[in-house]
Design brief:
The structure is a homodimer. Chain A contains 6 helices and 17 strands. By secondary structure, chain A is an alpha+beta fold.
Chain lengths: ~325, ~325
Amino acid sequence: MNLLATFLAAAFSTSLAAAAPAPPSPADIAAAAPAGAWRTVAPENLMLVETPRGTMAIEMAPDFAPAHIAAIRALVAAGRFDGGAITRVQDNYVVQWAARPGPDKVLASSGAAAVAADGAAAVAAGSTAAPGGVAVGTGPGAAHPAVLPAEYERSARGLKIVRLGSNDTYARSGFWNGWPVAQDRKTNTAWLAHCYASVGVGRDDPPDTGDGSELYAVIGHGPRHLDRNITMVGRVIDGIADFSALPRGTGPLGFYKTPAEQTVITRVRFAGVGDPRFEVLDSDSPAFAAYLKARANRTGFFIRPAGATDLCNVQVPVRRVTK
Amino acid sequence: MNLLATFLAAAFSTSLAAAAPAPPSPADIAAAAPAGAWRTVAPENLMLVETPRGTMAIEMAPDFAPAHIAAIRALVAAGRFDGGAITRVQDNYVVQWAARPGPDKVLASSGAAAVAADGAAAVAAGSTAAPGGVAVGTGPGAAHPAVLPAEYERSARGLKIVRLGSNDTYARSGFWNGWPVAQDRKTNTAWLAHCYASVGVGRDDPPDTGDGSELYAVIGHGPRHLDRNITMVGRVIDGIADFSALPRGTGPLGFYKTPAEQTVITRVRFAGVGDPRFEVLDSDSPAFAAYLKARANRTGFFIRPAGATDLCNVQVPVRRVTK
């Protein structure tokens, strides 16, 4: 870093801007969005995953996965994630964490085939990439039902989805209430899309559908092929960078080989008084429409705007509200 | 990790497989691909970026950026990257590194607006996200030309591009010689796509086009909006996980605030005798066609194959060849 050079460069940029004022960037648009364009994240839907590395703030989406989120709330209330661990970090894929095994023996292992192995990565690493699994228990004392319904998609009835406005490889796509979603008009269903920072429920091979005791966040290119194959419960809206920077696991599927490599989860709780508050740019707002358009048509640094954007590249703005 | 549970889960998977044998997975197909389906990475195109954290092996693509790669070779030969540093790690975006400033004063700063800030991230972090810049020098003693032609795209004439077979949001897309590429039939041009692990040349705002002294690798969702806006020179084919796991920079655009936070580059060189050898699955091979189809139509873990894949989700297989 050379401060003088940085200063000169800033001056250079300023002179360029004076010569040809650029339209507002996506960041400019979000920064200028009025108070009414922001949706407050309800504290009761804000799950905080606390570790010595930092805290992930995850907004849960009970409109899409009510049963799983109820199960996760029960696990959180029972303290089952406290003393759990981040058991898996697979590059360009997921960070995954698990609750402690409980008296109900529901949670037997952290070896979940939560998200199928990435073929290319597995080949590159020379691993055999045999999927592991999570035994699904049925014993007494479960903090939540041992078998939950799959919540891979829901009825789209009543969902006002703002269109992406670009072709999507996988499905008709857009935004509902600030969430990136895709839909199927034939079945009239909708689902949360797998984008960077999306949070889903680990599961074993079918017929298992997961029980909420193993969760993962996407830390790579949006694995949209997982859409409608896994229950999505929310997305990380703050703090993911402390977790995406964790050392990758060296075992199959990025699982850590030893407990010593894992990051301990100190505590998981839902937000309350005194916690940071967040807002998400409301996808029904004119500001979001302008933001979306600007994301597809970048200027300034860009000499050739793409004229389109894929769903996961939109990155719905989130801001921490100073109290 | 519970070994018993893992064993039971494996047994469970085996019994499932016996009941309904699954078609080969993408990883299976790559693992079974015959020797003739693999293209050897030429050592003279394999750039090794050595740091105390690990080594990145980058395959360069001189078919797409001959002038920039020649300039980078000259910088490497002059030892200008040795003692350089990783100056920027922006979450869900890029790892960027810079050569040492040289006697030609070409390389004045690491504050490049190499890749425009991500709007959402900037808002979330509350940063002002003002682009910095790199002073482009013209002094004597330059190890390479101070001004290079933009190599944002090239003629598609003579390129046999294997079609992706799915709709792409940004352009007609596919693969050439194992590289993910996109093309414009009107202009008859083609370019390397920005996917995870793609390597590009940092530049300042236009009219700057970069000089090869600052390079970046993508460590997040493929920022395809950068396609045709930056000179792409290759992709990381080994070792990226040591770099994608670096702590994120806390300054604007993910630049580190102090040199102490940077990771020093010990040495950069091109591969020679005794270095690991790599092979890339040839996109013209039947094995690749089967791999591509399997990536779009996952089975086993997946209950609902997507039936499509976006370009960056294909992840062309690479393998290290045991010597």
